[in-house]
Amino acid sequence: MTVATTTRVLGQLRHDHRSVALILVVPALLLTAVYFLYENETLAPGFPRTFDRVGLMMLAIFPFVVMFLVTSITMLRERTSGTLERLLTTPIHKADLLFGYALAFSIMAALQSLVATAVAYWVFDLDIKGSPGFVVMIAVINAVLGVALGLLCSAFARTEFQAVQFMPVVVVPQILLCGLFVAREDMNEVLEAISGVLPLTFSVDALKEIAGNADATGTMWQDALIMGGIVVGVLVLASLTLRRQTR
To answer: How confident is the model at residue 246 (pLDDT cuts 50, 70, 90)?
Structure first.
């Protein structure tokens, strides 16, 4: 049942060229914009480029944002069009249905992360100590996190506009408090405490570990496992929003 759902969703996405472009092309274009923001910066000898720090973080943040938007809106359409209601009248288990959606979008998320990371390394010469493979791994987990949160938030929206309104509530605070703009230890105690439980914080911390170390560290693996646990937990919560009768 899970595989059948995954195949159906991927088939729908294949015919939705705008969504495919949004998933695969937009993060790379945004990364390009970030690169040219710092193109003319003047650096002292031996100092790393700002792009190597900011661009690396964007490899996690852009997929997270894009997959949240695409997933929440697509799932909302499934609910409002009656497709989800019809599927729930069949013997399919709610977990099979939801994880099928999650798997389909996760495959797209993986492709998205591969494209964006390839652009960062091969086009803009991203220079960090860690392996590109670990960067892709964290980027994929982060994109899947966006998928999971999008599936969950779609249950609380009635229109596509309402789905987009979850951005300032769910996504923006995580971007502001993840440590990208201000080091977490420099925040006031309340904001630092909040940032310590936000999923995006763990991905940024993991990427910092990759940037500063040639080999994988225990902290990186710990952050990755925590993110994976959060993804599973959010998907379980999202499955609870599926009802046999929807309105």
So the answer is: very low
